[in-house]
Write a structure and sequence with these properties.
Elements: E1 3-7, E2 10-13, E3 18-25, E4 32-39, E5 46-51, E6 58-60, E7 68-73, E8 78-83, E9 92-102, E10 114-117, E11 121-126
Parallel strand pairs: 2-11
Antiparallel strand pairs: 1-3, 3-8, 4-5, 4-9, 5-6, 7-8, 9-10, 9-11
Length: 127
């Protein structure tokens, strides 16, 4: 399995931006789709964005479309989530995850398709 470590979270004001990073190690990072999920207090974890193994296709939750951008740099074994126009509703712990199967043509928004998870990074948006 791949080991994942998120970073880049923090406290930001409404309307601000953050870029989250997720560094992978272990199995061949570049062969697997990657996803970002988030969990707000007292809520279930939800899908945010995903990107296929070669970066050729992305997938976003409606709440992320137009504000968030997922990207990856396979040479650095890293996936990113650029977040802008943040609001207090975006406050959550953000997790990255690696797909369980290599080289899928499409990325998934379902947790069951992801086998490795990072420890999460806290994003807090103040009003």
């Amino acid at each position: 399995q791949v080991q994942l470590v998120e970073s880049g979270g923090g406290l930001v004001q409404t309307g601000g931006s953050l870029r989250l990073s997720c560094a992978g190690s272990g199995r061949t990072f570049s062969d697997y789709a990657m996803g970002w999920f988030r969990q707000a207090p007292e809520k279930e974890r939800e899908f945010v964005a995903a990107i296929i193994w070669n970066g050729g296709s992305t997938n976003y939750a409606d709440s992320a479309k137009g504000r968030f951008t997922i990207s990856r740099d396979n040479a650095k074994n890293t996936v990113y989530l650029q977040m802008s126009s943040l609001s207090p509703e975006d406050t959550a712990v953000y997790y990255c995850a690696a797909d369980r199967s290599p080289r899928r043509a499409l990325s998934s928004r379902y947790e069951r398709n992801y086998i490795s998870w990072g420890q999460g990074t806290q994003v807090t948006v103040s009003s």
